[in-house]
Sequence to fold (390 residues):
Amino acid sequence: MTSLSKGARVSSVCKVGFDVKEQVKVLAQVLGCLFPGPVEDPKVAHWLLDPSAKEKNLHGMLAHYTQDQVGLLENVGGGIGLSSLGISPQNPGSGRLRSCVESVLILDLMETLKQKLKESDLYDAFREIEMPSIITLIHVELNGIGFSPEECETQKVFMQSKLTALEEQAYLLAGRTFSLTSPDDIAQVLYLELKLPPNGEVRNSNQGRVTMPTRKTLGGRGRGQMAKHFSTSKEALEKIKNLHPLPGLILEWRKLSMSLTKVVFPLQKEKVFNKKLGMDRLFPVYQTHTATDGVFLAADYSQLELRVLAHLSQDAKLICILNSDGDVFRQIAAQWKNLDKKAVTDQQRQEAKQICYGMIYGIGARALSEQLEISEEDAACFMETFRDQY
Fold:
C-alpha cells in the first residue's frame, strides 16, 4: 500500500483503470486522499467510440477489442455486473492475482482504444473533456451532499396530507371508495361506471359519455373481467382527462405517490450522520440535493436539437432566429403566425415548441393533437403551415 500511495501521488503519472471512478474512490477511502494527475478508463473510451452500444464488462471489452487476450481471464474468476474484477469482494479467488491480471490487460486494452479514438478524431475529447469530468464526479460522490432531515420530514407530512386530500376527492368524484393503486379498480370506475371512452374518442356521445359494450357482445364476461381489458396507463388517462376531472386527479395522485415512495422515503433511509461535520449527509444514491453555503449550477445546451436541425438544413430564417437574442420559440411562433413578438401568447409559444421538437423526432398529427389537446385536423394544419414557413 505504501508503494501504491507513493506512485499514485506523482501528478505526471496517468492512472488507468476499468471503471476508474470506483477504483479511485476505493483508494481515496482507504488511503485518505485523492491522487493528482490524469486518469483513463477504457469503459469511457468505448462509450465515446459507440455511444449507442450496450455497456460491456471486462470480458466483453476484451472479446471486442483484444480477443487474443480473453484467455488470460480464465483463472481469475468473474466480477459482479460491469465493475472491475480487482475490487470485486464477491470473487473468492486471490485479489492480488485478479488485480495483476486486470492491470496488464487494461493497459494493453487502453492503448488499443486510444489508437481508435485518435483515428476517429475523438482523443482530445476523451482526454480533455470526458476524463476530467470523471474526476469531478469522484469529488462529488466522495463529499456527499448536505441533507436536512427536518425539511425532509416537513415535506413528507405535507405530501402525505395532500395525498389523502386527493384520495378523498377521487372517492367523491367516483361516488364510492376504490383502490387508486389497482388498475382494475380504476378501469372499473372510469370505463364501466363513468362510461368514459377507453381510447379517448367520443362518438355518439352525450356530455363525454359513451355507450359501453354489453356483456353479451363481450362473450358474457363479467364487469370485473371487462375492466382488465382497458388501459389505465398515463397515456390512456391523458387522452380522457378533458372529459372528466377524475383521470387528471388520478395522474396527480400517482405523481405525488411516486415522489413519496421513490424519493422522500429512500432519502430518509439513506442519510448518514457525519461526526466531523456535525450534520447528516446524503451520498448520491438519489438525485435530490441541497447546497449549504453554496449553489449547484445546472447547465444545458440551448435548443441543441433545433440548432443541429438548422445547421443541417441551412434554413436562413431558423439560423437567423437562433443567432439573435431573445426567446427562440417566441420568435419562431411570431414568424409562424405572422405576429409581433410581443403579441405571441404563452400558448402559441408552447405550440411552436412542441411542433419543433415533434417534427424533429417524427411525431404524427394524432400524437401532436393529444399533446396540444386539439383536434387531429388542427394539428395536421399546424404542421403543414409550419413546414411552409421553414
Q: What stands out?
A: Confidence is low (pLDDT under 50) at residues 203-224, 282-288.
